[in-house]
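User: I'm writing a tutorial on reading structure tokens. Could you give me a worked example: one chain, its sequence, then its tokens, then a sentence or two explaining what the tokens reveal?
Assistant: Sure. Here is the example chain.
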Amino acid sequence: MAKKQISKGILTKTLDWAYSKALTGFSGVDSAYKLGNSCLNQKGTLEQQVNSLIKWQTAKAGTSGFVTGLGGSVTMPLTVPANIASVIYIQIRMITAIAYMGGHDIHSDRVKSLVYICMVGNGAKELLKDLSIRSGERLVSKIIEKVSLKLAGKVGEKSVISASKTIPIVGGVVSGSYDIMTTRIVGKVAKKTFIENSPDRQKPD
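And here are its predicted structure tokens:
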């Protein structure tokens, strides 16, 4: 029980770290603003631009090169393996960029909560109900607590998948495939949340 609690606390810090870095960017890695604007400058409809972003970031999540480069570029949360923290960062930045592309204020507490909710993928619907009935200053903290608990289970699942492989190369391939799958899912949830189900969205300046 204690282990789960520690994992949840670590993931909470990792989510906050990832969101902060997504807003500001860092050396060699664009912020969510720049990533979103880069996609908005491409040809096609908004939906096509978002689809392109998801495809691009999904491929990036499955490559060890980006993970290694990210680990050397910025200080990550302590005790969080680089492969886990970097994939969380890729997903958070992708979701935040999609929110920005949909004309949402990515500095607002509500959008931040929605970004975190998208991280649980297919389990987002349940948390969206909580968001619709809750408000106030503790909104984000309540949401992130629930998201962290759900992500702790997913991180544990990934670790079991990787550790169950006796051949390191095979384990790496399986782990990369898992990251690709989860990134694609959270991308689709983000698209539905910030683009398809958001009639009041405005075009970014």
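What the tokens reveal: The CA atoms of residues 58 and 184 lie 6 Å apart. The radius of gyration is 16 Å.
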